[in-house]
Design a protein that fits this description.
The complex is a heterodimer of chains A (373) and B (251). Chain A has 373 residues and is mainly beta. Helix content of chain A is 12%, strand content 34%. Chain A is built from four helices and 23 strands. The chains are: A mainly beta (373), B alpha+beta (251).
């Protein structure tokens, strides 16, 4: 039986398996983790025909290379780490076909062109063993991923069964693409400890321009800039719960925006929480990028989040010209067992007017396709 | 840290899809009891929009599905839950304590710093063990790392400063003391606590439901066991046949 997968040639600075994370266990001290840029992961999954919650490889900064050990349809979303397939540059936010032995590189030798974290999404999703309902890797807690760790050279990462076939050349519509930039404006819902900061400190926080520090990681985006002192220096609080996007102001009065691998509780005053629709931009901010904060109400931020979920649910991609052009290397074979008999099936063309062709055990058939919905 | 109970709980906004009910700003059993009473009420209400609860020393964070609820609706719901749980706390002042017994091999290879803790306290190692295992510790919350219990109630006679230079690797199950706190390392990690013993019980098992042997809001009692006994228990833990003993005691 063919095993679908990807071999790690070089993991680069940091590559980890991530899905939408491991919610529901924070009361036991288990971090949610998951993709730092959830929007890029969701879009990437939908683009390759997956469920939004499927797992991708999050590649940080660059230096990563993979070799396909089976044919696959894939797409790169998120940061522009100058992706290439066998040396040919690839567009982001678009599906491509790969064949056995093809090399996918995300090297960005001169640093990312935009963003910080790219997502390698494959049709079928990466199929590492789920732990507490998620494949997300939390390296500190040794949960998820490959036995709790990041992929290393020569690891083979399996690809799951394809449930919804898509063609190469499928693209995310332009108006849905995020603009990762050097000057980020992040909207902030004040609270829960905004009352620990007086009006001067609060004004400073919302007027200052902060710079992303190189000490940032998947736990938090650390900022440097004008200090935001708490009243009477009371930055330490008795620990309470923290969520993604919460902005802690510890004793050095410099903000830290909590990201995917954050702990479940924290002992620093939180002046506000970033609206989820803006958090992806923070997660993609490289050291040196600037961040400015603007107030938003919880109600307005909820509306933005609901609208974005609806957009993703109702998304329609720019599909490749309908037709049957598909090169030999884009074929994907399936080994099926039906009532005890083995069948090898290869889909040899795209869907055209409800029909496609398939080779089953060497004999070509015309197949009528009934849309699933 | 001093106790500082609010007269009235406060509901605070925590982003677009969560509220925090804050009962106080200190570490004390009364505040913590109210947190877990509210958590129990919220769970019992089976509100489908609630997706996550994070109980802590003095507050309960409630995250909700913003496609099923809103800030205003959740505030109404939580005010109702606060009223209900306040009534039930008053009515059941004698709610039994759940005490989970954690076997601990003290001293020697299991707790290399036991003698130092005894020296610091000016008592014998046996007396340290008697004091440490003679108290039931409240599990105020779990956090920091999967299964890590924040415990309260250690006898200050055995309080000891952290190591000046932290160990690079503390084995999983290590029972330690840092200042007036005591705790257990769920997994091997670097650490600066004074190690006085080790429990063979796994404090976090992702394959178990729930993945922790005791729930926050309950109590832990450390029970001294011999080196031989701890090996026997470790085997049972490895085979998956060990169950942490739990007793209920009138509150």
């Amino acid at each position: 039986m063919t095993v679908y997968g990807l071999r790690v040639v070089s993991p680069g600075a940091l590559s980890t398996i991530q899905d939408l994370g491991r919610p529901g266990y924070q009361r036991f001290g288990v971090s949610v983790s998951g993709a730092a840029d959830r929007y890029a992961l969701r879009l990437g999954n939908l683009l390759v025909g997956n469920d939004q919650r499927d797992a991708a490889i999050e590649v940080t900064i660059g230096g990563a290379e993979f070799e396909f050990t089976s044919p696959a349809i894939f797409a790169i979303t998120g940061a522009d780490l100058t992706p290439t397939l066998n040396g040919t540059p690839l567009a982001l936010w678009e599906t491509f076909g790969a064949d056995v032995g093809d090399r996918l590189s995300l090297m960005s030798p001169a640093g990312p062109n935009s963003g910080l974290r790219a997502y390698v999404n494959v049709s079928g999703g990466f199929d590492t063993p789920p732990v507490l309902g998620s494949r997300s890797t939390h390296i500190g807690a040794r949960l998820g991923g490959i036995e709790g760790r990041a992929p290393e050279t020569d690891d083979e990462i399996l690809i799951g069964p394809v449930t919804n076939s898509v063609l190469p050349g499928r693209r995310v519509p332009l108006h849905l693409l995020p603009q990762y930039g050097g000057d980020i404006v992040a909207r902030v819902i004040p609270g829960p400890q905004d009352d620990l900061f007086d009006s001067d400190a609060t004004a400073t926080f919302y007027n200052a321009i902060y710079t992303v520090s190189d000490k940032s990681d998947r736990m938090g985006c650390r900022l440097e800039g004008t200090e935001v002192p708490a009243i009477d220096g009371a930055h330490d609080i008795v620990s309470d719960g923290v969520l993604s996007g919460a902005i802690q102001i510890p004793g050095d009065a410099q903000p830290i925006i909590l990201l995917a691998d954050r702990q479940t509780t924290g002992g620093y005053a939180k002046i506000g929480v970033i609206a989820s629709v803006d958090l992806a931009l923070v997660a993609q901010a490289s050291p040196g990028a600037t961040v400015r904060f603007e107030r938003i109400s919880a109600e307005d931020a909820s509306t933005l989040a609901r609208d974005r979920m609806a957009t993703l649910r109702n998304i329609s991609f720019d599909e490749p010209a309908s037709g049957t052009v598909q090169s030999e290397e884009l074929r994907r074979g399936y080994d099926l067992r039906i009532d005890g008999s083995k069948y090898h099936v290869e889909i040899t063309s795209g869907v055209d007017e409800g029909q496609t062709t398939a080779i089953v055990n060497g004999i070509e058939y015309v197949v009528h396709v009934h849309p699933g919905e | 840290m001093t106790a500082g109970t609010h007269l009235e709980p406060r509901i605070l906004i925590c982003g677009e899809d969560a509220l925090v009910v804050e009962f106080g700003n200190g570490i004390d059993p009364v505040t913590n009891d109210r947190v877990y009473a509210l958590a129990a009420a919220v769970e019992a209400a089976k509100n489908k929009s609630v997706v996550e609860l994070i109980p802590t020393y003095r507050s309960l964070l409630v995250q909700y599905d913003l496609e099923l609820s809103s800030v205003a609706d959740m505030a109404v719901f939580l005010n109702d839950m606060i009223a209900r749980s306040a009534v039930s706390t008053d009515a059941h002042d004698n709610t039994p304590r759940r005490i989970y017994e954690l076997p601990v091999a003290y001293g020697g290879e299991h707790g290399e710093d036991l003698d130092d803790v005894a020296d610091h306290a000016g008592i014998t190692p046996d007396e340290v063990v008697a004091i440490h295992s003679g108290t039931d510790y409240r599990v105020y919350m779990l956090g920091f790392a999967p299964g890590f219990p924040y415990l309260g109630g250690m006898d200050e006679r055995i309080a000891t400063p952290r190591l000046a230079s932290p160990r690079v690797r503390v084995p999983a199950g290590s029972v330690g003391i840092a200042e007036t706190q005591t705790g257990v390392y769920p997994m091997a990690s670097p650490g600066g606590w004074r190690l006085i013993g080790n429990t063979p019980v796994s404090l976090f098992d992702p394959k178990a439901h729930p993945p922790v042997p005791f729930l926050p809001g309950s109590f832990i009692r450390f029970v001294p066991v011999s080196s031989e006994e701890t090996k026997r228990i470790a085997n049972q833990v490895a085979e998956g046949t060990y169950r942490v003993h739990m007793t209920e005691q009138a509150g």
